[in-house]
């Protein structure tokens, strides 16, 4: 196709073509020979998009511009196809037949050159429709308003700010609008930041800072962001970290061996197999590769192959060549024969079998093995697998003598063990008594012995009798008859009978010796017992290795090839030169065929024996001396007796050719072809074969049952499994394209039928599918009710989708067809399915909307959840209100019902016809989790995660029909979810990792109701290998079919009042009768805390006294001290023992030992100071001030563990009085606002008790605010550092500098999950901006904002609160208060806020509110801005010197 701007070029081309026609016709006419003009006559066969050009006696076809082809076939050129060039278009390129055209995006117009795009200035046309100001932008425009106006919703008209109110146009705010005395105030939700115009919310791109904390990929979303991982990794529950997926842990990943790599894996095949389809292993047909290099026939078997010989010939030791059966080596020494030697000594028969060569030991199992010695005379398949030397030239008379016998040994196991030296000594002594000679010896040279020993259990009579070990031995013997043994007095028949009698006599003696366990087999000079009596119990881990194995690094390892097992030395010994061993775990080595004693030690096969003919050579026995392969032949292997002809009369360039490549072929064949020596042509490899190399004369058969799509294949990857389809009907299963995950074959059709059990329907997950994208559907996967094209279709696709999808079948049964055309191929698909009870149809439809089901690494696990359908069912019940008038007891019971209305509720019942048994190990079930989250992220996840809000609303019975997130529905879910929440904590990781995780069980688990007498119990289970959490469900007693599944929502709680309180989210009740003013706990409470902390109180000591000039040695592990303490009266020491001052970061415990051994040593801690620094203790000791209501300087606080009833009573009384009920839940002993939440939900607070220990404090709903430029009025807190010099007398100092922390958003009592609005700790999140003001800058700004309040008077109130707090903490002896230890000193940080209160005369005043007291605080900012900080601290605390120090005495 040509450009739309090249019409002049088209005209010139046609003109030139016309002139060419005239010239050609003139030439033809000049010749005098009339030329037929096929183009004019229409007899040409040019394509419709080609031009016919007449030539002398013929014509030419030329494709038109914009088309390509040879003229008889023309196809359109798609100029737009090249993404880089895009037809030269700046924006969009649209292809049309024979041409193309450029178009522009909205807001642009096409330039005169037909390719470039110019911006349209919309403001030139009627001011863009803007009422006031129109600003043109690239590709668009925007309306703006003049000062004092703001833009309305229609983005064109302007509204005067004097009329601004949230009721009109949302006050011009993008998101949240609030009416205030000074006008509207706009705010933004989490994930957005308010722009300088004070109206617009701009999405924060979290990915710009530290990649959003994501390990791999970060994708910014509106109001949030998402982390994702590279292929081969999965996202962990922290939604940041990527962990390698161990594909090898999954079933069916590889046929044979799987090796996992970070982000990937590799499949390997056993020897004799090759890889195809990426993960599958198929048998290699070695016979297709030059006939396996066999001399005659080749027989392929699974994993290996065998060469076979014609009648009258046998296999050479090299297992490839065939030699004449009678052929022998005249000069060769005969291989030593096996000998069965039996003797009788002192009435005791004993036999031993000597196996000098051709031995094979096969340990079949733990208690059975087989041994063979020698070579069978009539060789069969067994001999072809054995290594045997060539026979000597003695004539053998056939057939051989064969005998088979069975023996039994009682109370013994078949273990081939070396004979003990003690037994050999005893036998030697007996022989010495009778003269050292055997009085009677049966010596039978046998050609071949095959012996099998097998142990089995035999039950004695009587039910309680123990099992008895019985070993069975089966022995086969072959003896050869040689011609030289025949004489005139004894012919062949006589000799046969004589030898048969001799063998029978030997077998009789053998039977007696076996019965008396006096039968041994000799290998390499070591005698072995065939079976032994059961040994005494052997400790676990000390069991001996099997014969043929030795211990290495605590493991049993089989002796490798090239070695043999020596029972005498219990080690693997290398084969001596002149011998070899090509099998693992053998008891001797075989003599090399050359028999010259040469070769290397430890030879692993015959080829390492030495002396063999090298490639390109041969000899009669395969050993030197050797001859070169003659011209026209080649040999690629060593030790051969022949050379292979090139065939077809082909010669070689020289003698001694080593491969077919040396044959002088007529042509050199490329891969995918083989050379035919008859026709001397290259032939394409047939279908189901391939050839990857140049110049070969064979093609390799595809492995296993695979085939190729076409002939001429060049690689094993072209071999594809063709099998697919079938009938499926189980509860779960899968369908996959043939050859998956390798490319599927062309022209294949697969049909599956899924017929689920009765009353079950089908759920399908398609993790990914890869089909080539074409203009027309070439390869297609379709799922419908039946084979009929008009039946109900569930799913159909002919494209690639890498994002998972899930769906339910629209019919009870599914007919599935996959069809590929002749030209395409792709990876295809593997699609799992599961069936479910049809009663859950609506439930499953809701679950399908949950995006979590689509995570490709999770879908298989999640599908397993539905397998419980054969054990349980969910019943929908309607509890109608009964007539209860006049019956107070019934009315009271009705109030306690979980669902006291006409609303629908659910019950889970046992549906298994046999019920469930508590003791049955199979009666354990996994419940999946529908939503797992941390409280801080709950609101944002409901808005951002697709399908989550819809599923939660459905699960909780909240009406929500829309697709877009609805703030009202979100708030309802956040309130209702505390009836469904469960929790767990991770025991390892950072402090952030240990924050409580909450989860909601799936629809099945969430339908299980409460009962005080539960039938089941549940517990969370975190499956570490896949980082997935489940809930385990198990029965507490046997249940029958139809019984309800219930659990105790307050499991383990026995106190009746606490139980009533904990069940309040489900069973409404009031606690107004309970005293809501908790008193200080008893002494036993403090003593229990002291015992848990494992502190040891010091013994009484005198205060240490030091001189003014004393230089103190300081031992510390705090870097801030090491880097900033530089006063001359202090020096550091690395020895804790020589220190005068211990300044430790961690808590000190053993004060008793320190006070007894080193009372003069001072330290930076007080015993029992946790009464200040742990939040529940801080609240307890503070009640010593201010009566029953506590001090005014501490927010009202309850310990959820010990004071839950009092808190609920107080909450309900506030609710009844209409007072503010915002509360903040905090862990007892976590800093940095971790796991801290603000709420006004009573259910939320009650359930928080189930996580880590927490207190709940009244949230300061009316804090004193500070105005920050560009933000507005924000919350702030103040940190003071106080120095405790002594307890008695109380000596307390405050550092003169204090520190401030600010919220990042203006304060209002809403958006309680907006961390930057309600919290001030911002210095631990790198993605959050930190606003800092120095104290001496803050004071004048504060007094300017609040001119009626001087900071001096406020600080006096703060110091008074500090004094009262420490007086309370020190008012009682340890462990009820801080211990008066004279050598202790301490530094604490006290965080506080200011709160508006009203005095009795109605005037507002600022009341300090102590939030927490911190031990060993972070002093980084103090050291940064005040370098003398630690000098001041150490002088004040340890030298009692405050002159020049920036401290103020409080008490």
Structure write-up:
This is Signal peptide, CUB and EGF-like domain-containing protein 2. This protein has 25 helices and 91 strands. By secondary structure, the protein is an alpha+beta fold. The radius of gyration is 47 Å and the shape is extended. Residues 1-31, 380-387, 389-394, 427-441, 461-465, 851-867, 879-887 and 889-903 have low confidence and may be disordered.
Q: SSE layout and pairings?
A:
Layout: H1 7-30, H2 38-41, E1 50-55, E2 58-63, E3 67-69, E4 74-76, E5 92-96, E6 99-103, E7 108-110, E8 117-119, E9 133-137, E10 140-144, E11 149-151, E12 158-160, E13 176-180, E14 183-187, E15 192-194, E16 201-203, E17 217-221, E18 224-228, E19 233-235, E20 242-244, E21 257-261, E22 264-268, E23 273-276, E24 280-283, E25 297-301, E26 304-308, E27 313-315, E28 322-324, E29 338-345, E30 348-354, E31 359-365, E32 368-374, H3 381-384, E33 396-410, E34 417-418, H4 421-433, E35 440-446, E36 448-459, E37 467-482, H5 492-515, E38 519-523, E39 526-529, E40 549-552, E41 555-558, E42 563-566, E43 571-574, E44 579-580, E45 590-591, E46 617-618, E47 627-628, E48 633-634, E49 644-645, E50 673-676, E51 681-684, E52 689-690, E53 700-701, E54 706-707, E55 720-721, E56 726-728, E57 732-736, E58 749-754, E59 760-766, E60 769-770, E61 780-784, E62 793-797, E63 805-808, E64 814-819, E65 828-837, H6 841-848, H7 859-863, E66 872-878, H8 888-895, E67 904-910, E68 925-927, E69 929-933, H9 938-944, H10 948-956, H11 967-976, ...
Parallel strand pairs: 30-38, 56-58, 72-75, 76-77, 76-78, 78-79
Antiparallel strand pairs: 1-2, 3-4, 5-6, 7-8, 9-10, 11-12, 13-14, 15-16, 17-18, 19-20, 21-22, 23-24, 25-26, 27-28, 29-30, 29-35, 31-32, 32-36, 33-37, 34-39, 36-37, 38-39, 40-41, 42-43, 44-45, 46-47, 48-49, 50-51, 52-53, 54-55, 57-65, 58-64, 59-63, 59-65, 60-65, 61-62, 61-64, 66-67, 67-75, 68-74, ...
Helix pairs in contact: 9-11, 10-11
Domain EGF-like: 35-75, 119-155, 203-243, 244-282
GO molecular function, one term: calcium ion binding
Keywords: Calcium, Developmental protein, Disulfide bond, EGF-like domain, Glycoprotein, Repeat, Secreted, Signal
């Amino acid at each position: 196709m040509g450009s739309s701007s090249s019409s002049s070029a088209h005209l010139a081309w046609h003109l030139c073509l016309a002139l060419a026609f005239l010239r050609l016709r003139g030439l033809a006419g000049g010749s005098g020979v009339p030329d037929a003009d096929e183009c004019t006559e229409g007899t040409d066969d040019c394509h419709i998009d080609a031009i016919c050009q007449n030539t002398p006696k013929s014509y030419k076809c030329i494709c038109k511009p914009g088309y390509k082809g040879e003229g008889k076939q023309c196809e359109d050129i798609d100029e737009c196809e090249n993404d880089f060039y895009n037809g030269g278009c700046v924006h969009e390129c649209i292809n049309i037949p024979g041409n193309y055209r450029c178009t522009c995006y909205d807001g642009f117009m096409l330039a005169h050159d037909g390719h470039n795009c110019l911006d349209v200035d919309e403001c030139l046309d009627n001011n863009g429709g803007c009422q006031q100001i129109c600003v043109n932008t690239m590709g668009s425009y925007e309306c703006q308003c003049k000062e004092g106006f703001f833009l309305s919703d229609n983005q064109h008209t302007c509204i005067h700010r004097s009329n601004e109110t949230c009721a009109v146009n949302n006050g011009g705010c993008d998101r949240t609008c609030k009416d205030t005395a000074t006008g509207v105030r706009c705010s933004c939700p989490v994930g957005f930041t308010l722009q300088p115009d004070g109206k617009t919310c701009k999405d924060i791109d979290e990915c710009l800072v530290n990649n959003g904390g994501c390990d791999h990929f970060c994708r910014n979303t509106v109001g949030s962001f998402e982390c994702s991982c590279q292929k081969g990794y999965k996202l962990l529950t922290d939604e940041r970290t990527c962990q390698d997926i161990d594909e090898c842990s999954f079933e069916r990943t590889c046929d044979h061996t799987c090796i996992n790599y970070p982000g990937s894996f590799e499949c390997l095949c056993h020897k004799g197999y090759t890889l195809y389809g990426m993960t599958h292993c198929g048998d290699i047909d070695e016979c297709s590769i030059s006939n396996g290099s066999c001399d005659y026939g080749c027989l392929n078997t699974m994993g290996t192959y065998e060469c076979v010989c014609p009648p009258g010939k046998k296999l050479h030791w090299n297992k490839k060549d065939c030699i004449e059966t009678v052929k022998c080596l005249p000069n060769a020494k005969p291989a030593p024969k096996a000998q069965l030697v039996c003797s009788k000594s002192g009435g005791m028969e004993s036999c031993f079998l000597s196996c000098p060569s051709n031995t094979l030991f096969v340990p079949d199992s733990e208690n059975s093995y087989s041994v063979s010695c020698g070579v069978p005379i009539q060789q069969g398949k067994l001999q072809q697998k054995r290594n045997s030397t060539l026979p000597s030239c003695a004539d053998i008379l056939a057939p051989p003598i064969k005998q088979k016998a069975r023996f039994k040994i009682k109370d013994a196991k078949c273990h081939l063990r070396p004979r003990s030296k003690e037994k050999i000594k005893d036998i030697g002594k007996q022989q010495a008594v009778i003269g050292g000679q055997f009085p009677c010896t049966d010596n039978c040279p046998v050609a071949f012995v095959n012996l099998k020993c097998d142990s089995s259990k035999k039950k004695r009579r009587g039910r309680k009798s123990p099992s008895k070990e019985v070993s069975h031995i089966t022995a086969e013997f072959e003896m050869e008859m040689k011609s030289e043994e025949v004489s005139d007095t004894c012919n062949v028949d006589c000799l046969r009978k004589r030898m048969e009698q001799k063998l029978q006599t030997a077998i009789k003696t053998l039977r007696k010796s076996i019965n008396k366990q006096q039968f041994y087999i000799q290998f390499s000079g070591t005698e072995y017992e065939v079976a032994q009596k059961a040994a005494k119990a052997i400790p676990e881990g000390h069991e001996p290795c099997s014969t043929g194995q030795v211990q290495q690094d605590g493991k049993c390892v089989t002796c490798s090839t090239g070695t043999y097992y020596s029972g005498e030395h219990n080690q693997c010994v290398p084969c001596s030169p002149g011998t070899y061993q090509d099998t693992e775990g053998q008891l001797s080595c075989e003599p090399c065929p050359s028999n010259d004693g040469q070769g290397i030690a430890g030879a692993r096969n015959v080829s390492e024996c030495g002396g063999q003919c090298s490639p390109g050579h041969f000899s009669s026995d395969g050993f030197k001396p050797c001859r070169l392969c003659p011209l026209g032949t080649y040999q690629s292997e060593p030790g051969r007796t022949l050379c292979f002809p090139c065939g077809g009369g082909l010669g070689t360039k020289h003698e001694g050719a080593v491969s077919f490549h040396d044959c002088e072929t007529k042509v050199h064949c490329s891969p995918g072809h083989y050379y035919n020596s008859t026709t001397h042509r290259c032939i394409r490899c047939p279908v189901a074969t391939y050839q990857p190399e140049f110049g070969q004369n064979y093609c390799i058969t595809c492995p296993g049952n695979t085939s190729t799509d076409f002939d001429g294949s060049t690689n094993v990857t072209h071999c594809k499994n063709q099998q697919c389809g079938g009938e499926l009907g189980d509860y779960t299963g899968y369908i996959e394209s043939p050859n998956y995950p390798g490319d599927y074959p062309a022209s294949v059709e697969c049909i599956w039928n899924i017929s689920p059990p009765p009353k079950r329907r089908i759920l399908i997950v398609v993790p990914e599918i890869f089909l080539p994208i074409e203009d027309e559907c070439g390869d297609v996967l379709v799922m419908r009710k039946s084979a009929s094209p008009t039946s109900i279709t569930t799913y159909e696709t002919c494209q690639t989708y890498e994002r998972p999808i899930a769906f339910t079948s629209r019919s009870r049964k599914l007919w599935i067809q996959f069809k590929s055309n002749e030209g395409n191929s792709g990876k295809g698909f593997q699609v799992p399915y599961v069936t479910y009870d049809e009663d859950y149809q609506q439930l499953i439809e809701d679950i399908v909307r949950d995006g979590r089901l689509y995570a490709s690494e999770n879908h298989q696990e999640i599908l397993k959840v539905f397998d419980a359908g054969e054990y349980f069912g969910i019943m929908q019940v309607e509890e109608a209100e009964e007539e209860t008038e006049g019956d107070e007891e019934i009315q009271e019971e009705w109030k306690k019902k979980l669902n006291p209305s006409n609303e629908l509720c659910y019950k889970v019942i046992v549906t298994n016809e046999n019920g469930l048994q508590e003791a049955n190990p199979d009666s354990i079930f996994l419940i999946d989790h529908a939503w797992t989250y941390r409280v801080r992220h709950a609101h944002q996840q409901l808005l951002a995660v697709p399908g989550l809000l819809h599923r939660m609303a459905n699960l909780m019975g909240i009406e929500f029909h829309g697709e877009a997130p609805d703030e009202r529905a979100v708030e309802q879910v956040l309130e209702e979810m505390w009836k469904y929440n469960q929790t767990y904590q991770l025991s390892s990781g950072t402090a952030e990792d240990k924050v409580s995780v909450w989860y909601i069980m799936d629809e099945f688990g969430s339908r299980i109701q409460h009962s005080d007498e539960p039938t089941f119990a549940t517990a969370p289970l975190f499956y570490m290998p896949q980082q997935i959490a489940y809930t385990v469900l198990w029965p507490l007693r046997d249940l029958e079919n139809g019984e309800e599944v219930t659990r105790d929502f307050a499991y383990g709680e026995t106190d009746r009042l606490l139980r009533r309180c904990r069940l309040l989210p489900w069973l409404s009740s009031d606690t107004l009768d309970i005293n809501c003013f908790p008193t200080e706990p008893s002494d036993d409470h403090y003593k229990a805390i002291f015992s848990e902390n494992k502190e040891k109180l010091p013994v009484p000591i005198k205060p240490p006294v030091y001189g003014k000039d004393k230089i103190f040695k300081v031992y510390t592990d705090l870097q801030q001290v090491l880097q900033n303490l530089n006063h001359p009266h202090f020096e550091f020491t690395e020895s804790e023992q020589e220190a005068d001052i211990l300044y430790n970061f961690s808590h000190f415990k053993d004060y008793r030992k320190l006070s007894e051994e080193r009372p003069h040593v001072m330290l930076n801690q007080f015993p029992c100071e946790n009464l200040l620094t742990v939040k529940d203790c801080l609240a307890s000791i503070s009640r010593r001030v201010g009566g029953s209501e506590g001090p005014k300087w501490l927010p009202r606080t309850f310990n959820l563990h010990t004071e839950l009833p009092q808190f609920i009573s107080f909450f309900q009384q506030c609710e009844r009085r209409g007072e503010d009920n915002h509360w903040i839940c905090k862990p007892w002993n976590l800093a940095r606002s971790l796991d801290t939440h603000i709420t006004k939900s009573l259910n939320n607070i009650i359930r928080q008790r189930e996580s880590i220990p927490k207190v709940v404090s009244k949230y300061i709903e009316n804090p004193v605010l500070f105005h920050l430029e560009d933000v507005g009025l924000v919350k702030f807190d103040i940190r003071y550092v106080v120095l405790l010099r002594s307890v008695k007398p109380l000596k307390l100092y405050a550092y003169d500098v204090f520190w401030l922390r600010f919220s990042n958003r203006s304060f209002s009592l809403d958006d309680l999950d907006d961390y930057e609005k309600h919290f001030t700790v911002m210095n631990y999140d790198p993605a959050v901006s930190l606003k800092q003001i120095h104290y001496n800058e803050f004071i004048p700004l504060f007094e300017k904002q609040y001119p009626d309040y001087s900071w001096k008077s406020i600080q006096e109130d703060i110091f008074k609160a500090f004094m009262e707090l420490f007086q309370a903490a020190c008012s009682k002896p340890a462990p009820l208060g801080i211990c008066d230890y004279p050598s202790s000193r301490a530094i604490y940080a006290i965080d506080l806020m200011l709160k508006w209160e009203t005095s009795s005369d109605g005037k507002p005043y600022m009341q300090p509110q102590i939030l927490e007291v911190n031990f060993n605080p972070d002093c980084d900012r103090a050291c940064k801005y005040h370098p003398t900080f630690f000098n001041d601290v150490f002088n004040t605390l340890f030298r009692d010197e405050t002159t020049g120090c920036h401290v103020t005495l409080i008490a």
